[in-house]
Amino acid sequence: MEPLDLLAELFEAAMKGFGTDEKALR
Fold first, then answer.
1. Does residue 10 come out as left (phi exceeding 0), alpha (psi in the -120 to 50 range) or beta?
2. With the C-alpha atoms ordered 26, 9, 7, 10, is the resulting torsion angle positive or negative?
């Protein structure tokens, strides 16, 4: 897995953990 892909996965997981998603940030 590419480092950036791994970071993206962690970021997405963190956002879901906070009860939000990428669409809510736009």
1. alpha
2. positive
The pLDDT value recorded for residue 5 is 92
What is the residue type of 8?
A: A
Tokens of 4: 């950036």
Q: Which residues contact 9 (CB under 8 A, 6 or more apart)?
A: none
Q: What is the pTM of this model?
A: 0.46
Question: Chain centroid to CA 3: how far?
Answer: 14
Q: How far apart are CA 4 and CA 22, in angstroms?
A: 16
| Residue reference for tokens 């939000």 | 20
